[in-house]
Amino acid sequence: MDDETWETIGRLVKRLDEHGTASPETARLLRILKIGEEAGEVAEAVHGVMGSNPRKGHSHTWDDVQKELCDVVLTAMVALRTITPDAQRVFRENLERVAARDAPR
User: Membrane spanning segments where (predicted)?
Assistant: First the structure.
């Protein structure tokens, strides 16, 4: 992720902090829990693509799944930035760790 992306995430966190009514500790927990909610929306969209709910049929598209996956990523980035001001470094280091683990040996 580039600097501009993380600056945008920082602005989103600031706006949420300014307009939120929860305590900082509660806001932190709620933002982490929000990731699960968004993941559930991905699952719902996949079920909709597959038509696995007979009552709803084919209610979603793969574009819907893509949008919901982006919501998960953005929500996780907001949660990470909420718990550390150095979210960009933390993310980069973890990405490098995972990439190194999966590199050809």
Answer: none
Helix (H) or strand (E) holding 60: none
Q: How far apart are the C-alpha atoms of 77 and 21, rounded to whole Å?
A: 21
Which two three-digit tokens encode residue 31?
């933002």
Which letter, b or e, does each residue of 69-85 get, where b requires 16 or more Cβ atoms within 10 Å of its Cβ?
Answer: bebbebbbbbbbbbeee
Q: What is the token pair recorded at 99? A: 């990439």
| First CA to last CA distance, the chain | 26
Amino acid at 18: E
Look at residue 60 in the predicted model and tell me its pLDDT.
97
3-state secondary structure of 51: coil
